[in-house]
Amino acid sequence: MKNQSDFTVELSRTAFFFDFDGTLAEIAPDPSGVEVDPRIVEALGALWRNSGGALAIVSGRTVDDLDRFLSPLKLPASGVHGLEMRDAEGEYRRADYDGGEMERLTCAVASFAEQHSGLLSEVKPGSVALHYRQRPDLHQACADLAGRLAAELPGVSLMRGKMVFELRLGGRTKADAVAQFMAMRPFAGRQPVFVGDDVTDEDAFREVEGSGGYGIKIGAGRTAARFRAADQGAFATWLCHIAAISACEKASLLSGGQIERAEPDGGIGRSGRSAATSGAP
Ligand SMILES: [Mg+2]
User: Fold this and answer.
1) What's this model's pTM, rounded to 2 decimal places?
2) Closest CA to 200 of 182, 215, 183, 180
3) CATH 3.40.50.1000 fits 4-94+173-261, yes or no
C-alpha cells in the first residue's frame, strides 16, 4: 500500500513522460491535421524548466513530427515507440533494424492502402502504420493484412492502436523508452509518471508502476495505470495547473478533481460514464 506522499507531485523529484496523440493533442481524422493548443505548448515548456528538464515525450510519432507540432520547444523525446530517442543533452540515436524487411513492409502496406480509398499508410524509421480512421468498415481487412505481414516477416511486431495497426521492426516499446530515460540524468532517481490514452501506452504504465511511479490513463478502458483523467481536456487542465507551481512546491495529484483513481473495471468512477473500450479497434 502506497502512502499519501506518493500522491503528491513535487517537480524536483518527478520525471514526467507524456504520450502525444490523444494526450497532448486531440486525435484528428488525419494524423497530419493534429493541432496542439498553444496553452499546452506553454505549459510543457514551463514544466520542463521547473522540473529541471525531467520531462520527455514518448510517442509513436517521429521525433521530427513531435518537434513540428510542439514548436518552438525541442523537448527530450522518444519516437516510433522507443526506436528513436533524443535525450536531455539533445543527443539523437536510433535503434538498428533490417532495411530489407522495412522495404517489404513499406511496399506491402502502401500497395494495400492505394487499393482502398481513405486508408493511409505512414512510413516512419523502422515502422509502418496503417491508419483506417476514415474507413472503419475496413477494420477486419486491415487486421488481416497486418496479422499476415507480422506472421510472414520474423523481425516485425504488430501493435494495435486507435484506428491504426502499426508494424514495427526492432521490437522496442514505450516501456523501453521510459527505462532508457530513467537511467539518464536528469530523470534518474526520480519518481516516474507516464500519461497516455491508448493500448500502446500500457507497457509504459506497467514500467512506471513497477518502478515506484504511477500511470495516468486518459479516457475509459481497462488499464495498468493507477490513475485516470476522464478526457484530454481534463488532463490539459491538470497539466496547466502543475506547470504553474514552482520547483520547490508540492501539489496534490487528486485535489483539482481532474485526476481520479482508476476503477478496476475500466470505467470512469466520478463521472459515472460506462466502461467503453480503450479505443483500441
Ligand atoms: Mg496516444
Assistant:
1) 0.86
2) 215
3) yes
